[in-house]
Amino acid sequence: MFGSACPQQGGSIPDVLPFTIPVQTPNNTVSEDCLFVNVYAPTSAKPGDNLPVVFWIYGGAFETGDSSMYPGTAIVERSIELGEPVIFVSHNYRLNAFGFLASQEVVDAGQTNIGLRDQRFAMQWVQQHISAFGGDPTKVTIWGESAGAWSVGFHLLLNNGDNEGLFRAAIMESGSPYALRNYTAGQPFYDTLLNYTNCSSSADTLACLRHAPYEQLMAAVNATPNGFDYTGQNLAWQPRLDGDLFVRNPQRSMQMGLYAKVAILSGDCDDEGTLFSLGNTNITSDSEFLSYIHSNYIPSATDSAIVNVSKLYPDIPSEGSPFDTGDSNVLTAQYKRIAAFTGDWQFQAPRRLLLSTMSQTQDCWAYLFKRYKTTPYLGTYHSSDLTEFFSDIDFIGTDAIINFANRLNPNASPRLAPNVSYFSNVTWAQWDSNLSSPPLLEFLDPAPRLGFTPDTYRADAMAYLNTLSLQMP
């Protein structure tokens, strides 16, 4: 039985494809009273067992999502089969305007980035109470996907990297720390809420919003862009630089060495940008592409820098995303180009920057998910890997999580009997084991096929994107 989901922003995938993409929604009621923690433990677990803990943070572009969508039963059951039992903990955190409201008024009240604070509070709850369920508070691995993975990355950086002993390992599934915008970028969306709730003329607009009818607030939230709109991953509701939790570009904090020194597992889907480019099908020319990436993603870049980006992501469909599909999947003239840029800017390039930085001090493993490449127009799209980690397709992803939580290493235990796990036949080397050709574990079709590929694809393009993102305020 789950508690209520937090308020969800409305939005749908643009109807531009000849098929329907399934979208998960919360399995329960929605309420502002939504901060719940769920604990999945082996039935035999008892205080003193000191089992490792997997702490899950759901995704959904900081707009939607709920812990009920990701039951931990299969992971716990599989961990018992492997002889490496874990406890799985999930929780809810506030979303959209309820969790990521940003404005001068919010900064003055000290109420910024509330959704991240919710997550941190849930981690503190685990530290205080997980031993009662048989868990070890010193053996917590935090794991998230999409916005959950971004969150994991940000938790590595909070307090200048002092994680207060809340976790000893981190897993980022499609998401790494990226260059945040200042809280002032959220002011227009705050003002939208004021207009919808008749709070604009109030002496204390934040207090007025707190007392506004829920229906009016949600109407205002739903009037702001969502992750499938034209603005794509330039999200209305997301973490912001606030002078408190974030005092500088998170990527610069990372380069300064101000991150938690824990074991890292990180990976992406091959075509991260396709799903978020379906709302850009009206962009059909080179000039429109240049204008879009400049205004929407890299506003601080010079005109010459944007021209350089356009050369690295050329108007050549065979070089676009879905990658390795030649001249097919050309939904519109600039679609594959926008998808390639978006996936690299928001996901792949930040991951590579994280690994190249943190592998200098930490054990790091990385993967690339390339299954379902034949999905028309989308390829291996963002979130298509979730079933690999939460179901019994082949247990490869699940086993990696369990192994990592137990031994800070995704490879199979040498004590494991043969033929129990596919990892018994694979040696997954650390990312920095070959600096000229860092290994990525590939998930390939058909399952359970695996491979390895060097993390060097689009090297010049991603290096340039990281140069630009590090220059952002």
From TrEMBL:
Q: InterPro entries, from UniProt?
A: AB_hydrolase_fold, CarbesteraseB, Carboxylesterase_B_AS, Carboxylesterase_B_CS, Type-B_Carboxylest/Lipase
Which enzyme class?
Answer: hydrolase
EC id: 3.1.1.-
The record's keywords, sorted A to Z, are: Hydrolase
Molecular function (GO) terms listed? Answer: hydrolase activity
* Residue ranges annotated for the Carboxylesterase type B domain, each copy included: 3-391
Domain of life the protein comes from: Eukaryota
In its keyword annotation, does this UniProt entry include Hydrolase?
A: yes
Q: Which family does it belong to?
A: Belongs to the type-B carboxylesterase/lipase family.
The protein's name in its UniProt record:
Carboxylic ester hydrolase
Source species of the chain: Wolfiporia cocos (strain MD-104) (Brown rot fungus)
